[in-house]
Each structure stands twice: as structure tokens, then as C-alpha cells.
Amino acid sequence: MILRFLIFCCIVSPCVLAAQSSTPLLFKWWIELTDKKNTPYSIDRPWEFLSARSIERRAKNGCPTKLEDLPVDPAYIATLRAEGFVLHGVSRWMNAVAIIADSAKALTAQKLPFVRNITCVGRDIKIKNPPNRPQKQRKPYQVKQSVAEKFGPLGYGVINLEPLATPFLHQLGARGEGIWIAVMDGGFVNVDTMPFFDSLALHNRLWPGPDFVERDRSVYESAQHGTSVLSVMGANLPGYFVGAAPQATYFLLKTEDTGGEFPIEEVNWILGAEWADSIGIDLINASLGYTTFSNPVYNRPYAALDGRSTIGAKGATIAAQKGMIICNSAGNSGDEPWHFIGVPADAPGIIAVGAFDTQTNDHASFSSFGPTSDGRIKPDLSAPGLNVVTAGNVGEELTMSAGTSIAAPILTGSIAALWSAFPNSTAQQIKDAVFTSANQFEHPDNKLGYGIPDFSLAWVTMQGLKVYGDRYLAGYDADSGSMKFLFFQETVRDNQVFSVEDIFGVQQTEGRLKAQGKNPQFVTVQGLEQLPAGVYFLQANGTRHRFCKVK
């Protein structure tokens, strides 16, 4: 079944009609404030509102603290509370506050001197989830050996990961260790009991974050969608089902309101991203998007998909400037009348992820199209999104799923695995390597964007290597004058004899290969110092490989 964005059919009256009811309806309102001129916080003291990990990440990525990072003036918050307003959330980036009130009460906020504008962002829906239920007991699970024999150590996960060459990273030991990922979704039912996430919990790499919908910390509820999303990244049952980044650390945030579809969820998206930024998150996955709402009066026209008109896109644009990599599903409307991506996938700087069919390596029909209304290429990249294996909602159940909401976390997890191999690299360096590895990098379109990344090539790029000749060899001229080769698939025996010939077949040197490690293998060839720059052939292991010696 194609995974769609969480869109519901409940229609409510516009906010302005609520006051006519004998019992006033409660709505959520977005209050934009005038300034931060009296805030007690300072950009020179970021440790007062950002974690050490966040400050370090920003410094590494050249993202200085700005006025937008300062918390909202606490005096303004205190005044709103004193006026009897219930606060839903506070956004420092947008210098805004979301409140809960009926229409008549909300209009009084406009009279406050520090309020610049007020907008209704939807009904206040009451979800009947039990508050903060206790964590359930995990049960052990024995992997079926037959699956491992057929699919290898990644089990069914190889179906999802092989199209992006992510298993190559796993072979090198790059599995997301040290990378923090925030997952924003509608709920994560049974994540606290399913065996796929046992190792995450055991090693303190699974953290329930805030619930920005019900304003508590109960996230193992409401929806199974987030469970499936997490599974293609963090699942770790070797030989049965392994995700793209099983050694990353995950923070689960509930931002999607499963009781209805309203613009307040764009606000929740921003609140989640701000929280993620503040604790030091590296990557955000959001398999969410917004174009149509439970009340059509809020619907986003295509003209608004310019990356700067909607609340969600404004916040996402800022989030992308904080040294994090953000992957957001493009949308599943490609074969529907709407056709286009949603909010905040239109925001510049974030990676809008489309879906492709692994059987054809072409665009999946449901995957939403670009461009943005101001003409930018979207989606940005594409990942497997049809016949994808995901964890079900109970026990060790696996299901086949589809949607850009599943493509996005496969890409997110793969980026995390790559980043874990180069932890000192900036977000932009990682993004550049991933984009340049994609198969449409030179000729992007509005179906697949820049195309399908190849994470083995991205790794080669990050290593400073270049691919020469056939697909399985890379080489470069080291400072010592030696040439280092990387064999992707072949087995090279230690102490093996090699020869180097020029383009005319004349042997230039001979020696022995010193193999290091398992497949894929590095092989260092000495004795090339005297060779002039040019094209040569390495004869080894019964095959002939072309390489270039550079100055």
C-alpha cells in the first residue's frame, strides 16, 4: 500500500465563526512578535540556550549565532500567560508564539503592543492518548538463519539499501556511529517493544523526545507511520532486517497531529527542528508534508510553494542554515491532480526526497514533482520508495511499503552512515559528495531531481579519490609518490605480483601488492615515483586496471 501523507477529511468551520457557538470552539493561533530588543539573552552567550554539542556543530559548519537564535523575550511570554492565554509552543527562530484560545479571546491579543500579527492555524483537536504510559517490556527474538543465508548480514534490509550502495559503507564499518538523528513524525507505536530496536535501546541510542502535539513526552503512540520510518534507518536484527544506520543515535519527536490536518503542524515542524538544533542534532528526517488541510480555507496554492511564503518553509529554510542536514519527503501526489511537492519540501537548503522504482531505476509514479513555484529544481534527490521493506507495528513483522515518506529515511540513514566515516566533515561537504555521486547530477530534472546517489562513489569523493577506468578501481598519487588503489569487489591476495604498463603495453615497473583488510581493500603500490604523469595499466589478480598518475 502506498504510504500517503497523513491527510484527513474532517471539515471544520472557519475560525471567525467559532464565536457564534454557545460553547466557543478553541483554535490555535500563530502570534508574530515585534522584536527581541529587551531579551536578557545574548548571541555572545549561546551556552544559555544551546547545548555544547549544538555550539560545536555550528562552529564546525561556520554558522554563527544570530539574533534569530535568541529565545523569545520572556517578558512577552509572561504577559501572554497573565492575559490568560494557553501556550502551545514558542519559536525563537520566528520570534512567534502559538496559543490556544477561542476567536474572541484571540482577537484581544492583537491589542498587545508587542504583537505584530496574529493568524489562525487550525482547530484545537483533543487526542485521547493515555498520558505518558510506562515503557513496555521487550521480548527477545531469534533470527531465522534461512533469511541470513539468502540475503546476507543485512537480511531483508539489503533490498532497501543496495540501490544506493549503502552496504558498501557497512562493509567499511560506517554504520552511523556518533551521528545524532531527529525523526519527526506522527507517532512511534511499539518502538519501545519491537526487537528491531533492542540494540538502540540497550546502548542508549534511542530517546523519546518531546511530543509537540500534546505537549508531553509520550511518543510511543498515535501512529505506526513513524515506526516504519525509523525501521529503515535504525533497525538492527543482523541476518533478518538491518537499517541504513543501525549505530546512529535517534531522537523521536511527535509533530504530526493525527486528529486532523491543520497549519499548526507546520508550526510543530519548526518547534521540532528548533529543539533538534538546540541539543546538537546532525540530521533531521521529516516524512511529512502539507498542501491540503481538513478545512480547505487553509489550503496552500501552488504559488505559495516558493520556499518563503508559508510558515513551514520559512522555518525550514532557517533550520537548513544551522549546520544540520535535513531530509524531508517530497510528497506522494505525483499521480494525483495536485501533482507537486508539499511544504516544507519547497524550502531551499533542505533535501526534498523523491521516490524511485528499484525495478526500473526510474521515477515512481506517485512521487511528487517539482519545480517550486519560483522555478527551483525539486525534488533534490531520490531514494527507493516502491516495494520497500519496513518493520510492521508488532513483534518481528515486516511489511512492504511505498512512498516518499519511506524514501526519505533510507536516504537520511545512508547519509548518516557516510558522515560517520568522516565525522570531522561539515554538512555541506557531506551534501556535496552525495549530490555529485547522483546519476543525474549533470542533468537534473523535476522527477528525480539530481537523481539516485551512489554512496560508494560519495565515499570515494570524501576520501579524495577519483574513479578511473572500470567501476571498481580508484587511485591517487600520494605525497610519497606511491599509488593507492581501492578494489571494491575483487579479492586481492597479500604479496601478489603486479606490473604497471604504459598505454603502449610497455612494462614500467614490477613489485608485490600489500593488501590491507577485507573486501573492499586498499592496495598500495610503491615504485611509481619516477613515472611521468599519464595513463597506465595495473596488471594484478588476473585483470587489467586503468589508472591515471597525476602530478
Write the layout of secondary structure elements.
Elements: E1 27-33, H1 52-60, H2 74-82, E2 86-91, E3 96-101, H3 103-109, E4 115-123, H4 145-151, H5 157-161, H6 166-171, E5 180-185, H7 198-202, E6 206-211, H8 225-234, E7 236-237, E8 241-242, E9 249-254, H9 264-279, E10 283-286, H10 311-319, E11 325-329, E12 351-357, E13 362-363, E14 381-384, E15 388-391, E16 398-401, H11 404-421, H12 427-437, H13 455-462, E17 466-467, E18 473-477, E19 483-487, E20 496-502, E21 507-516, E22 521-525, E23 534-540, E24 543-549
Parallel strand pairs: 5-9, 5-10, 6-9, 10-11, 11-12, 12-14
Antiparallel strand pairs: 1-3, 1-4, 2-3, 7-8, 12-13, 15-16, 17-18, 18-19, 19-22, 20-21, 20-23, 21-22, 23-24
Helix pairs in contact: 8-11, 9-10, 12-13
Descriptors:
551 residues, alpha+beta, Immunoglobulin-like, 3 domains, eight-stranded antiparallel beta sheet, 13 helices, 22% helix, elongated, disordered N terminus
Distance between the termini: 55 Å
From the 3D coordinates, which CATH architecture of the largest domain would you assign? 3-Layer(aba) Sandwich
Question: In the CATH hierarchy, what is the class of the largest domain?
Answer: Alpha Beta
Give the proportion of residues in helices.
10-25%
Regions with pLDDT < 50 over 5+ consecutive residues?
1-14, 16-21, 468-481
* Fraction in beta strands: 15-25%
Structural domains: how many:
3
Radius of gyration: 26 Å
Helix tally equals 13
The name of the CATH superfamily of the largest domain reads Peptidase S8/S53 domain
Average per-residue pLDDT, rounded, comes to 85
Number of strands: 24
Globally, the shape reads elongated
